[in-house]
Design brief:
The chain is mainly alpha-helical. It has five helices and two strands; from the N terminus they run E-H-H-H-H-E-H. It has a two-stranded antiparallel ribbon with strand order 1-2.
Length: about 170
């Protein structure tokens, strides 16, 4: 079996650490029927079960090697690792989709709230314009009444002046 140190993969130290963690997880997990038997005939599955004890020993040695920073380049190890990373990527993609959906729903709720607020503000602005128009009309009426009052005061002053003259 061919193997290489994982430090020769061109990864940064943090990527190597992450790779080692996931390699250990992948190699420690029991092989799933869907990934290890996919596409095989029943006779190859039978021969596969005959070799399970040798695979168990290989898995143990691969797990120990993963802890030591060794990447085995055999088909089985790489298949398990690839399957693990495919599952991990699928889980990450699902989480991204879920968070994107939540973000979109939140944005839509916020947009709906903003639209309601704008409609309410527009109604209040229209109401204020109506009130200001009524105030303008009342000011015009008030000016008319003031002029009439001033005219009445003028007439009253004249009438009082005439009454005083007549009394004399």
């Amino acid at each position: 079996m061919t193997s290489i140190p994982d430090t020769q993969l061109g990864l940064s130290p943090s990527e190597i650490h992450l790779f080692r963690q996931h390699q250990a997880i992948a190699l420690a997990a029991p092989p799933s029927l869907t990934s290890s038997t996919r596409g095989r005939s029943s006779s190859s599955r039978a021969s596969s079960s005959r070799n399970s004890s040798s695979r168990a020993h290989g898995s143990t040695s691969r797990h120990a090697a993963a802890g030591n920073g060794i990447l085995h380049l055999d088909t089985s190890s790489l298949s398990v690792l690839a399957s693990h990373f495919d599952h991990l990527m699928s889980s990450i993609g699902s989480r991204i989709d879920y968070l994107s959906q939540l973000t979109e729903e939140s944005t839509q709720r916020q947009a709906a709230g903003v639209a309601r607020t704008i409609r309410e503000a527009d109604r209040e602005i229209d109401r204020m314009r109506e009130l200001l128009g009524q105030i303008d009309e009342l000011e015009v009426e008030f000016d008319k009444v003031r002029r009439i009052r001033d005219i009445v005061k003028g007439f009253r002053g004249r009438v009082e002046g005439l009454e005083r003259r007549i009394r004399r």
